[in-house]
Amino acid sequence: QVQLVESGGGLVQAGGSLRLSCAASGRTFSNYAMGWFRQAPGKEREFVAAIRWSAGLTRYADSVKGRFTISRDNAKNTVYLQMNSLKPEDAAVYYCAVRVRGAIVAPPNTPSSYDYWGQGTQVTVSS
After folding, report:
1. Do 48 and 60 contact (CB within 8 A), yes or no?
2. Per residue in 40-59, pLDDT tens?
3. Are the CB atoms for 86 and 107 separated by under 8 Å?
4. I want to staple 24 with a disulfide (CB 3.0 to 4.6 A). Which of 53, 74, 77, 121 is the partner?
5. b/e sequence 69-80, b meaning 16+ C-beta within 10 Å
6. For 116, what's the count of Cα atoms within 13 Å in the CB-facing half-sphere?
7. How many CB atoms lie within 10 A of CB 106?
8. Mind listing the pLDDT tens digit for each residue in 63-94?
9. Where are the beta strands (DSSP E) in 63-120?
10. How many Cα neighbours within 13 Å face the side chain of 107?
11. What pLDDT, on the 0 to 100 scale, is given for residue 30?
12. In this structure, how many other beta carbons lie within 10 angstroms of the beta carbon of residue 27?
């Protein structure tokens, strides 16, 4: 079992920044990848960014490239999502997820590729 706790969400004006954190505990020695997804009201959960735990290979959705940065702290078993130049369309509940079932080459961008999920943190962007 792996437990994930997100933090860092909140209200920000368009153009502002937020940094989300996701701390993993439990069976963290077998983390292969961690990812961030988001879900706005009435929409499906969508991929935002992911990182392969070893080597730090990253992957981003086109909509956030150049604005968001995913990073990890191995010692703290924590993944971060630095979000800059936020837009109203970035508003959503952001979820972090971890894959423990097996190694991958590229960080996955589909929800079904992940095994455990956090409870989500709300990001609101005012225009």
Report:
1. yes
2. 999 999 999 999 988 789 99
3. no
4. 77
5. bbebeeeebbbb
6. 23
7. 11
8. 999 999 999 998 899 999 999 999 999 999 99
9. 68-73, 78-83, 92-99, 116-117
10. 25
11. 63
12. 14
**Are the C-beta atoms of 61 and 49 separated by less than 8 Å?**
yes
DSSP 108: P
Strands of 40-120 (E only): list them.
46-52, 58-60, 68-73, 78-83, 92-99, 116-117
Query: With the C-alpha atoms ordered 26, 40, 124, 14, is the resulting torsion angle positive or negative?
Result: positive
Structural contact between residues 21 and 33, judged by C-beta atoms closer than 8 angstroms: no
Averaged pLDDT for residues 15-22: 98
Both tokens assigned to 114: 């992940």
Q: Which two tokens stand for residue 18?
A: 């937020």
